[in-house]
Amino acid sequence: MNNIEVALKGSIEKAVQECFNITPESGLVMIEIPKDNSNGDYSTNIAMRLAKVVRSNPQVIAKALVEKLESNLENADKIEVAGPGFINFWIKKSELASVINTVIDAKDDYGKNNSGNGLKILVEYVSANPTGALHLGHARGAAWGDSICRLLNKSGYDCLREYYINDAGHQIDMLGESVYARYLQSFGMEATLPEDGYHGPDVVEITAEIKKDVGDKYLNCPKEEAIKYFREEGKKRELDRIKKDLEYYRCEFDSWVSEQKIVDENRVNLVMDKMINMGLTYEKDGAIWFKSTEYGDDKDRVLKKSDGYYTYLTPDIANHMYKFERGYEKLVNLWGADHHGYIPRMKAAIQAMGYGKDALEVDIIQMVRLVENGEEVKMSKRTGNAITIRELVDDIGVDSARYFFVSRAVDTHMDFDLNLARSQSNENPVYYAQYAYARICSILRTRSAQRLENYDLLTSEKEVDLLKHINEFVNVVSDAAFTRSPNKICNYIQKLAQYFHSFYGAHKIIDDSQPELTAQRLALLEATRITLKNALDLIGVSAPEKM
What we know:
Elements: H1 3-20, E1 31-32, E2 42-44, H2 46-54, H3 58-72, E3 76-82, E4 86-91, H4 93-97, H5 99-106, E5 120-124, H6 136-154, E6 158-165, H7 170-186, H8 201-214, H9 223-248, E7 255-258, H10 259-264, H11 267-277, E8 281-284, E9 287-290, E10 301-304, H12 313-325, E11 330-336, H13 343-352, E12 360-365, E13 368-372, E14 375-377, H14 389-396, H15 398-407, E15 414-417, H16 418-422, H17 429-446, H18 461-471, H19 473-482, H20 487-506, H21 515-538
Parallel strand pairs: 5-6, 5-11, 6-7, 11-12, 13-15
Antiparallel strand pairs: 1-2, 2-4, 3-4, 8-9, 9-10, 13-14
């Protein structure tokens, strides 16, 4: 809540206590901004919420509260009862305008809050196998995950960004054999790629890099030794490419956890033994099963197959236990739509191991469809394969890619309009927001803004709309962090840009005949500039000073 809302809520709670001898419980008093300005700057439905408790008509309750509030609420110009019992407040313009100095003083920290109260939360996202380039689904998940973490950190959570490297198992074996086959072929030798191997151009490119470094060193060595080398070298080089692409995409990670390391540190065996000792498993048909139905899953799951090999589930459980062992209280995973059925079994495992059912939350990333000139684009023009992050960014830029991906809720299917993303028009939301920022910077280059003690001349509807929206930024950041909804930041950015453009179109900013009004409007622009820049940064989008 911003300072105005905190004061307003406190006054309402005090009025409830004095009028009805009731101490309001947390969350009872709710404040919102009316959609229609004619209904005031803020509104509360507290009278309707008290009706059953007080056993009185909401309008009667509202009138009693208003009478009390009028005597002790100093920051309101007018308070009135509306409709069935809403209480509407018109805040003093000087109170609304006080946000200007709050923003100017805070600068890059404006929007920062402590709603997370230091909760240790680990967010795992992307986590693609190091067997090929990152594609559109990864691009959406990367933009969303990175934006979530920016929001959480801004809101006082202790957030760790983690990439889980699936670098053990069959798919990595196939990568090694695929690179080895391409290596032999590059010397004109006959070699067949595994049917379920990797046939894409990235394997060819990596093979060429390795050949340049090692020459013919592995032509005549034992096949087993060669494949082992190409397995590790191929994995390393694929991962290096992934890291570079993510950096190119302004997506950073604090931690890279290797599945192979989880295995090598004996964590999988230890978790298996613990589950057996806790009575969470049983044997059937030579396999070891997890009693996952006892924890909400639709059927029990195999942990260890009859051939002695673990299923995918077992190292995943070990990985999640490792997260808790590091002190994280809340785990958030971003998974593709094809992993939806995997959620109940992982949640079951976490509950079985003694953690709360809400200790793990999973956000599902739905599919993306690229559209150009009204038609779906499926393949890369360069390679004929799926379009990669790097290709998309090279085409439309990082800003457009990231903005578009977080502008829609991640659990909805998305049509990504390439023509719109490329366009330099107000129809493009990225351009619209960045143009607003550049225009503000252009004005402030001609006349600098100063922190003032008084903003009493900022009373027009357009100025008040802008002030109210700037005041709401902290609330929006806190809410977007709590709900893990960076799309709310996009909505905020569009409204802020809209309010600025409307203000700019209606008023002369620099008027030498009115120096005091000019100074106040310039300070308002500076507060708008800072807020817009901070909002764009939360979703990893730049704020250009010139366009």
